[in-house]
Amino acid sequence: MSKHLKFLTALAFGVAAAGLVAAGPASAKVEGDTIIIGSAISFTGKYSTNGIHAKNGYDLGVKRVNEMGGVKVGGKVYKLKIKYYDDESTPLRTAQLAERLIKQDGIKYILGPYSSATTKAMAPITEKYKIPMVEAEGASRSLFTQGYKYIFAVLSTSEQYLASSIALAAEMAKKAGKKPSDVRVAMAFENDPFSLDVRAGVMDDIKKFGMKIVIDDKLPRDLADMSATLTKVKALKPDLLVISGHSKGAATAARQIKELKIDVPMIAITHCEAAKIVKLFGAATNDFLCPTQWAETLSYKGKYFGTAAEYDKLFKATYDGYRNVPYQAAQASAAVLVWKDAFERANSFDTEKLRQALSETNMKTFYGDIRFAPEGNNIAKPMVLRQIQDGKFNVVAPSKWASHKVNWPRTVPGM
Question: Residue 11: in which H helix or E strand, if any?
Answer without folding.
Answer: helix 3-20
